[in-house]
Amino acid sequence: MTVSNKITILRTVQQVRQWRAQSFLNGQTVGFVPTMGALHAGHCSLVSQSLTENDKTIVSIFVNPSQFAPHEDLEAYPRTLDRDLEILELQFREKHVDAVFVPKISEMYPNGIVLDVSKQKGAFVTVHGSSEQLEGVTRPQFFRGVATVVTKLLNIVQPTRIYFGQKDAQQCVVIKNLVRDLIIDTEVRVMPTMRESNGLAMSSRNEYLSQEMKDRSSVIYKALKAGSAFYNENVAKEDKVSASELISTIKKVIEKEKAFEIEYIAVSHPDSLEDLEYVELGTGAVVSCAVKVPKENSTEKARLIDNIILD
């Protein structure tokens, strides 16, 4: 355990449990913000909410290998621990973050971890019914990895509340189902998506993009907003709107950027994530998409996700 100015840095499960035990003894609530680092204003908004709602706040920084497939960007994923700690210290001076958990892979996966799911050893968690669609179609191992690491972190930290951003809409549904079904005594708090001034959803993967590409990528949110406007205009007439027409409206806007590759656009039930034929007033929907855009100085593309909620 080390202390960086006011922030206690915890490296092991035992250190976190000792830190948490003191909060239990003092009857203090604990808010928890799990991250993979490369912190941005979106993460900071979650931390700020936790600081407002809890006596103590802990942040984790851990790039989780089990949610990456062998062909994905685990090694390239940005790792900026020193900058992340500086952000947490400078951004929150009036009421500071109490602890940051920065474990090694061996601490979180005692059996070790390889990216090939068929060769992995140990206990893993799968949330059936909300993991297979949307992101789960092209990244079938992703939510198994997310559910596993979040379960581990919840067991370690035992927070009063855990915080996620709405940008990762499917992840939020998966985690809510996980906490409910495993009867974990933690409240899941989902906060609004934080955006750049141009509307682009804040994401660690935005670091792959030039400023020009960030500006061009703002078309994703503009397209979703066009879908929202189409819904609001038509739902007042018939109390329901065709999902296929919604998707078509969004697709036309994104397709103006010829270099962008639409992976999916989906209109889903807000609780089950089942595909909807119609969006009905009162039930609403999650309208989500994944779009691949050119990376800076690379022939590869960055995969950006975003969503809006229809009431």
From TrEMBL:
Question: One GO molecular function term?
Answer: pantoate-beta-alanine ligase activity
Task: Give, as in the UniProt entry, the pathway in which the protein acts.
Answer: Cofactor biosynthesis; (R)-pantothenate biosynthesis; (R)-pantothenate from (R)-pantoate and beta-alanine: step 1/1
NCBIfam families registered for this protein in UniProt: cyt_tran_rel, panC
Q: What is this protein called?
A: Pantoate--beta-alanine ligase
Keywords (alphabetical) are:
ATP-binding, Ligase, Nucleotide-binding, Pantothenate biosynthesis
Q: Which EC numbers characterise this protein's activity in its record?
A: 6.3.2.1
Q: Which family does it belong to?
A: Belongs to the pantothenate synthetase family.
User: Is Ribosomal protein there in the keyword field?
Assistant: no
Question: What species was this sequence derived from?
Answer: Lodderomyces elongisporus (strain ATCC 11503 / CBS 2605 / JCM 1781 / NBRC 1676 / NRRL YB-4239)
Q: Which InterPro entries match?
A: Cyt_trans-like (IPR004821), Pantoate_ligase (IPR003721), Pantoate_ligase_C (IPR042176), Rossmann-like_a/b/a_fold (IPR014729)
Name the reaction it catalyses: (R)-pantoate + beta-alanine + ATP = (R)-pantothenate + AMP + diphosphate + H(+)
